[in-house]
């Protein structure tokens, strides 16, 4: 980035003659090696660094930056573990235990709101890299504004962030649990408490892993191994996901930071049996598919289902193929707004087929809806179901 001046991608390799003379003509090459435009840009960038004495300026600004950062460290020694860096490339490492559920990412978002751009690293480090400006006028004022922003985040914003994050759901609750090494599959022999790997276990649905589409979204860590074996009880097939925990303070950092992710992990899938909570005559249905090409459905989504049980004289008969709106999902634990939601069962309200000519929304078949239904139905425009419901959760 610096060599290209932020204009064009370019890199260079430096080595002494003892290394370079081992490479004979034609032995080493690159399709884009020696690109004329990139070489001109890199040369101009090096000229700017030399002519404007940016290295010297970095050293002088560093002293002021480090003094102010160490001053903040003294004021918030319970939160800040270390301040380090070279030149204007500096890092503030936080104590994860005292921050509780607040991450470096949360702090960077708060800094952004106060006019300072910073980068989170490894969940506990905030990287500060102020620019090398040609004009040195007001540089001290700008640095002081940055320090004030960091001070205010720790003094004012941090307690609010801790209160907000305290309601988040641990990932092992959402996904079924983390199995110790004695319960691991054949390829996973390292236990989670050794700080290297964890096994997130959940029962499979129709031969497909529940995490198959989310393999890289668990705490932003890639899953290095996936095994399909009878892990826990020797009878039910479960999926075992091995996740690198290097650099984590297990277990409290294994949290889903985005409440929206909590909803995405809660699926009513093909084969799921749901209770019918209206007076249409059906008692239970089995999900065939979710509409709009989705692999699974959650609160407010519409599914196609077959009736497994029905009242003898009801309007809907056993074996009929029907549409239903999911109004309760037993596995769901969180909402988009971060609030808690819990239901004891999977339930649907049956609706009629959408009129393609008039494009009217599907309407409930029954005239009554029993039990609580979620307020998410309002956004999905299922207003008639809300009107018939006894309780809105």
Helix content: 25-40%
Say how many strands there are.
14
The name CATH uses for the topology of the largest domain is: Ribosomal Protein L14
Distance between the termini: 51 Å
Q: CATH class of the largest domain, anyone?
A: Mainly Beta
List keywords for this structure.
five-stranded mixed barrel; 3 domains; single chain; structural constituent of ribosome; Aspartate Aminotransferase, domain 1; alpha+beta; rRNA binding; four-stranded antiparallel β-sheet; Ribosomal Protein L14; coiled coil; 393 residues; 10 helices
Quick synopsis:
With 393 residues, this protein is an alpha+beta fold.
Could you characterize what this model shows?
Residues 168-266 have low confidence and may be disordered. The strands form four sheets. The chain has a five-stranded mixed beta barrel. A four-stranded antiparallel sheet has the order 1-2-4-3. Helices cover 26% and strands 22% of the residues. It folds into three domains: 2-52, no CATH class; 55-163, Aspartate Aminotransferase, domain 1 (Alpha-Beta Complex); 272-392, Beta Barrel (Ribosomal Protein L14), CATH 2.40.150. It has helices at residues 17-20, 36-51, 54-75, 96-99, 104-113, 139-165, 171-175, 259-264, 376-379, 383-388, and strands at residues 80-86, 89-94, 119-121, 125-128, 197-203, 223-229, 238-244, 273-276, 282-290, 302-310, 321-328, 347-351, 369-373, 389-392. It contains ten helices and 14 strands. One of its GO terms (molecular function) is structural constituent of ribosome. This is (rape) hypothetical protein. Belongs to the class-III pyridoxal-phosphate-dependent aminotransferase family.
